[in-house]
Amino acid sequence: MAGASSRVHFHDIPDVVLTTIFSLVSKTRTRNAMSLVCLKWLALERSTRKSLTLRGNIRDLFLLPTCFRAVTDLDLSFISPWGCPLFDSFSNPPLLAQFIRHAFPSVVSLVVYVRNNSTLHHLAPQWPNLRHVKLVRWHRRLPTAPIGSDLVSLFEHCRTLSSLDVSHFYCWPEDLSLGIQAYPSIAASLSHLNILKNSSTEGFKSHELIAITSACPNLRKLLAICAFDPRFVGYVGDQTLLAIASNCPHLSLLHLVDTTSESDVRPDLNHEGYTSEDARICYATLCDIFARLPLLEELVLDVGHNVWGTWPALEWLNSKCHRLKSLKLGHFHGICQGIVSRPDGVVLCRGLQSLSMKNSADLTDNSLISISHGCHILSKFELIGCKGITETGMRIFTHNLRKTLVDVKISYCKSLDAVSSLQALEPIRDRIERLHIDCVWEENILKKKCKSSSATTWTKLQHLSLWIAAGESLAPLSFAGLDDCPALEEIRIKVEGNCRDKARPSMNAFGLRCLTVNPRLSRMMLDCSGVTGYAHTAPAGKTDLSLWERFFLSGIQELKIDELDYWTAQDVDMNGRSLFLPAAGLLAQCGRLRKLFIHGTANEHLMMFLVGNPFLRDAQLRLNYFPAPDDDTSTEMRVDSCLRFEEALSNSSRHVPD
């Protein structure tokens, strides 16, 4: 038997088993590597691929793959030239649409960039059995387009649609409310509706939400951005929430957030934590809502204004919504009494696996400890803007949940700077997988090293998210105790601040070099969109954004990252968010970079710097006002310059090793 088994070849594995194995592999690069083994494995990989994101230029139709006929989830939103109408450059758009359908006949889920109505006009008829559609558009809608016209072709041809996501689709609120109401049969079939973000800074008003939910009685998931501010006409209050619960009694996910929750503005840490206005939501109404939604599994209510004495409502939530697994509350006060009294409020929600508390001003260490005893299976926890929580309370909390807690976010908490946050997480350092902290340093951080940092290993930490003020450095991370993360694969850094009030950076570099100690780090998101400064010549004694970009990106060439998303800093007065020469030069030195998305604009000659990257295969500019209008006199990238850059990047003489 031993001799016989040693001669078994992988070709002897039954096709049914091989097909099952291939279908369980999700990573694209892994699947591509498997397909290179032999022709049989190539055919199996192509026949079992279920999701695909198309990149490349739409004019290169001869490169369109025709071997992925089993693909059900297709993403066309990355096709270049990005942001341009998909069919406008072709003389025969219907033929192109049929060609795409022929290559992917099994599509039931589609993501597509819709610059104008022509895209869905030609694509929607090709897949009448679409069940999920996500529309993407950062450009402003045409003011001359009829209200709701963007959805007409989709609703006319896709009668089996059950899920619609317009969270990244620039439109007016009335486009959605009137468009959905115009097709009652489609609205009745929708089970998932995501209208979380849109172009309106006011969010959806009360009558719009009531109209949408009335037209969609079978919704199971609803995500929306609303206007909870009672000072505005059409604010969302008691009556609106009751109407939503009555109109959609089968909801398992209800996600309602105020427009202010999307703001990047960080309030004063010394503020008491209460807003000047109270939301028009009382605990009795909340009790009634929870009673009408017995299937609720995930609830998000970030209302942006005070909601008082909520612990009785949360007890009612626990008694009526037995399936509840995830809860996020914003500006809810009095969510529990603390360990000095009997268990109450959110403490009784013992089935919670994810809990987020934002701007709960009266939350104390005792409350937090009580929550850790009641919600004993929490795996994810977020603490945002809760000034009453200290390192002691947070440490006891993590100690009590050390067997289950793997995902933690601590942000904008006055008593929890970076060092205190990391020390509070010591009980779960060998278990935590995802972490966010604010890089707020004490003045003597270099002298006051984290007490246990000498023996600190974040064994399972895979994703790290950091917030840091402009002008500060990442270098103290190692002193704070975050210097040994052998499993770290992805990092996101959010930088915010006004560089106009600051002189030249006192340090030579932002500190990206300190991340070189993480051997598996391969993906980075560096978001400087919250940094403002002078795009052109700065006044005497000040520094323009080009030097600040050099400060932020210095050392990035030493990281072995494969993917980078970079949001450029901005000059709000000039409406400019562009890549400068120092940034282009530093990015060009990232020798292992395979994918680069620049969320901003750039000049063509600066983008050409990137062609020298030996591994770079996918590079795009993405921003809401890109490409620039034809009558714009600036030298930023246009459609033709993007084409020239892509041609240089895909030139046959430029060998890109896999």
UniProtKB/TrEMBL annotation:
It comes from the Eukaryota. Residues 13-50 form the COI1 F-box domain. InterPro entries: COI1_F-box, Leu-rich_rpt_Cys-con_subtyp, LRR_dom_sf. This is COI1 F-box domain-containing protein. SMART domains: LRR_CC.
